[in-house]
Design brief:
The complex is a heterodimer of chains A (431) and B (341).
Chain A: H1 2-22, E1 32-37, H2 43-59, E2 63-68, H3 72-85, E3 91-95, H4 99-104, H5 126-131, E4 142-147, E5 150-154, H6 155-160, H7 170-180, E6 188-190, H8 198-209, E7 214-215, E8 218-222, H9 232-248, H10 258-266, E9 270-275, H11 279-284, E10 294-297, E11 307-309, E12 312-318, H12 325-335, H13 338-347, H14 361-364, H15 369-376, E13 381-383, H16 393-408, H17 414-430
Parallel strand pairs in A: 1-2, 1-3, 6-9, 11-13
Antiparallel strand pairs in A: 3-12, 4-12, 5-9, 5-10, 7-8
Helix pairs in contact in A: 2-13, 7-9, 8-9, 8-16
Chain B: H1 14-21, H2 39-70, H3 89-96, H4 100-130, H5 136-144, H6 151-161, H7 168-175, H8 189-216, H9 221-229, H10 234-245, H11 247-262, H12 266-271, H13 283-292, H14 296-323, H15 328-340
Classes of the chains: A alpha/beta (431), B mainly alpha (341).
Chain lengths: 431, 341
């Protein structure tokens, strides 16, 4: 009896160890299995990706794709760990903020040669082609779409306040939002971003104010080589921005991040919101707002009448450690062209990568029209490469977010904030 | 310990108390008769334990050791081309960081400000739940429910509840006439700290209530009967019978909770993200922030410091409470005093 129990125990243990091993071994039927890991995960997007993958598998019966979808908050860290281990990832979501450090560590595969003869290039917008190459001409990812800012606004409140059109400049925004702002009746002018990612809207204001002198190859530099934070116009921008908080924003927006900003606008209490196009879908579902109460306008300009589109992007890339690079590149191509790309950008409310989208009714009407306006007028809405790929970007984000909070809490003046930022970037680029 | 010294009829209850009612060492039940292990039986046990042991070694101890060595290396994910040994540089960076003082102060406030109200309210709840009343089972289940929710989710829920404009807290306070205009709870570092403490107290009361209630149920009714006959009041019964009797549970629960609360960044992270102005960071949320920046070296140094602080605390706490006669002896003495009173 005892012997049987011992045998059983040993058998169980052995079985567990062997089962553990068997999941790690590759398939043997001649079919290639690609592991694909996404980063900006959400359930609806994962479903859509799975549909697209099913189409791909149908066209490529010898390739199977295993989609891994870690929760967004931890996804990039999980990806880092997988990439560091050197296996387990073939195709992955690469963001403009992760491409720098990951390529620097040799984790990403340069697809330049594989994509040399790809017919898909001709269909891509100039922005998409530009974003798919780094400063040394290497292709670590092909963008699937862009996130760009536009001004969500309440058409009814603007009219009630006595204005006939939404603000076209930051100064006009300050004026309109201040007039609408009335906390005692729970009506707020502007959904200020004071929490996570606070620096992004602050720098958007600064870039608008220095648009005339900005270096198109680097959004944080002026043409004369100094940082944009050193410009006198930057101080004007930050003083205006601080007024926007004090005169037109809810007090608690010191801590507002994405969810509070979007909630503030879509529950009908806040008149203006600067956000990405993905918010269109959320606001459309709002029960507090009718479709005729709100719209979007192009990003506000600075004193020169120009502004800078702070485009953020992400796309699909291939891991250097992948053993099936040819198949992986094929999947990247599939997702970056034609029907698959259109479905993905529409389904996720992204600014599209295909030229043909400008002719699509979906993008020419309603809240989407402002994005087409911006794309079609590159002389007013300048496309400038943002230094989001630098290795220290996350460090910068966290530092800059804290500084913006310090400024609006009165613990740092706009002048001190800008001096700090100027010194930070000058020092970083010197290395 | 003896009930025989009591001059009243409490005497009759005391002997049976000694046999049945004495709280078990460590609160885990009576000692088991030790069995002789044959080699073969030993093998069986080892075989059953092997998978768990291998998993724990592989997924707990190996990462811990591998992670520790990062603390002494230049391990920054943004540039892994140079991961050379740097001695105590990461530790120096932690100690000289301007945020370190605030982080330490916040951590102390977080632990003490959470544990004291949790203990007091948890104790009161347990005492109350011990009495029999209608729907007691349902009520117990409702009170224990928060413990089943993830800390991060609770952080997000409370973040909305404490939202100045759309949150339920301000709404209720205004309706009750306690405040005139909304308080921007999470926008001011001082009120933000109060808000996270309130959330954590709400969350952790449950655990104390569960543990203390379980311990309370092991106190034999005879002791209370004897105390009542001796004329002991409620306060005296509480301090002379109840508390000494469940001392072991209290000590262990407080110890566990201090360690858990110290290591509990989820709630603050979900609620304030360490802000505003980085002024609600505790050591562990700060560690997450540094990890997000990619500086695994500095984050590991901070992690090792946390382990060291908790080891010192646990040793000190256990030694101190043992010397003061915690556990069985204390309970026994307390029981005697209670009856004698």
């Amino acid at each position: 009896m005892r012997r049987r129990t011992a045998a059983l125990a040993l058998g169980t243990a052995a079985a567990m160890v062997l089962t553990g091993c068997s999941t790690m071994s590759p398939g043997e039927s001649g079919t290639v299995t690609l592991n694909m890991v996404e980063s900006l995960t959400n359930p609806a997007r994962t479903d859509l990706l799975e549909e697209l993958i099913a189409d791909f598998e149908e066209k490529n019966p010898k390739v199977k794709v295993n989609l891994v979808s870690p929760p967004t908050e931890q996804a990039d860290q999980k990806l880092q760990q997988m990439l560091q281990s050197g296996s387990g990832v073939d195709v992955l979501e690469v963001r403009d903020i992760t491409v720098g450090p990951w390529s620097n560590n040799g984790w990403l595969y340069d697809m330049k040669k594989d994509l040399a003869g790809w017919k898909g290039w001709d269909a891509l917008t100039d922005n998409a082609v530009a974003a798919s190459e780094d400063d040394k001409g290497r292709t670590y990812f092909v963008p699937y779409g862009f996130y760009g800012l536009s001004l969500f606004h309440r058409t009814d409140l603007i009219k009630e306040a006595g204005f006939d059109k939404p603000p076209a400049t930051w100064e006009e925004l300050l004026e309109q939002a201040s007039k609408i702002h009335d906390p005692s009746s729970r009506r707020y002018g502007y959904a200020f971003r004071g929490g996570a990612n606070a620096h992004s809207n602050a720098t958007a204001a600064i870039e608008a104010y220095v648009a005339d002198r900005i270096d198109p190859a680097n959004g944080y530099l002026l043409k004369d080589g100094k940082t944009i934070f050193s410009a006198p116009e930057a101080l004007d921008a930050m003083e205006m921005y601080l007024k926007l908080f004090k005169q037109a924003s809810p007090k608690s927006s010191v801590a507002w991040g994405y969810p509070e900003m979007v909630e503030g606008f879509s529950n009908g209490s806040t008149a203006f919101l600067l956000q990405d196009p993905e918010v269109i879908a959320t606001v459309s579902e709002s029960k507090s707002l009718d479709a005729n109460q709100w719209s979007t306008a192009p990003l506000m300009a600075g004193p020169s009448g120009k502004t800078v589109q702070p485009l953020a992007t992400a796309g699909w890339g291939v891991a250097e450690g992948s053993k099936h690079k040819a198949e992986a590149v094929k999947l990247v191509q599939f997702l970056s062209e034609g029907e698959a790309s259109t479905r993905f950008t529409k389904g996720n409310s992204l600014v599209p990568i295909l030229k043909a989208a400008a002719e699509d009714d979906f993008y020419r009407s309603g809240p989407w029209a402002s994005y087409v306006t911006m794309t079609e007028n590159p002389d007013t809405y300048l496309v400038v490469t943002q230094p989001r790929g630098v290795a220290w970007w996350t460090e910068w984000q966290q530092r800059a977010d804290t500084d913006v909070q310090k400024m609006i809490l009165g613990k740092l003046t706009p002048k001190e904030l800008l001096a700090g930022w100027d010194a930070y970037w000058t020092e970083k680029w010197k290395k | 310990m003896s009930g025989t010294s009591t001059p009243t009829s409490g005497v009759t209850a005391a002997p049976s108390v000694r046999k049945e009612g004495a709280p078990p060492r460590g609160g885990t039940g009576g000692g088991r008769r030790r069995r002789d292990f044959t080699t073969r039986r030993g093998l069986v046990v080892a075989a059953f334990m092997a998978p768990a042991a291998v998993f724990v070694a592989l997924f707990t101890y190996y990462p811990m050791i591998a992670g520790s060595q990062m603390a002494f290396r230049n391990w920054n994910l943004t540039d892994l081309t140079d991961t050379s040994w740097v001695g105590f540089k990461n530790f120096r960076e932690v100690f000289t960081d301007p945020a370190w003082g605030t982080v330490l102060g916040n951590t102390a406030l977080w632990v003490v400000g959470s544990i004291v109200p949790q203990l007091v309210i948890g104790f009161a709840l347990a005492l109350w739940l011990r009495r029999r009343f209608r729907l007691r089972g349902l009520y117990q289940a409702l009170i224990f429910f928060p413990w089943a929710i993830s800390g991060f989710l609770i952080g997000i829920l409370f973040r909305w509840m404490f939202n100045s404009e759309f949150g339920v807290v301000n709404d209720l306070l205004q309706k009750a006439g306690l405040i005139d205009e909304p308080v921007a709870w999470l926008a001011d570092p001082d009120t933000a700290m109060i808000a996270v403490l309130v959330a954590n107290v709400w969350y952790g009361v449950t655990f104390f209530a569960i543990m203390i209630l379980a311990a309370l149920q092991s106190i034999p009714d005879e002791l209370y009967e004897a105390a009542a006959l001796d004329g002991a009041g409620k306060a005296r019964t509480l301090f002379r019978i109840t508390i000494p009797y469940i001392r072991v549970t209290l000590v262990l629960t407080v110890l566990l909770r201090v360690i858990w609360i110290f290591n509990f960044p989820d709630l603050i992270f979900g609620m304030t993200g360490g802000g505003p102005n980085d002024e609600t960071h505790i050591v562990t949320t700060w560690m997450i922030k540094i990890t997000q920046q990619g500086d695994y070296g500095k984050a590991s140094a901070l992690g090792l410091l946390v382990v060291a602080v908790l080891l010192v605390f646990a040793t000190f706490f256990l030694t101190a409470t043992r010397e003061r006669g915690g556990g069985r002896r204390g309970a026994g003495r307390g029981g005697k005093r209670g009856v004698r009173a």
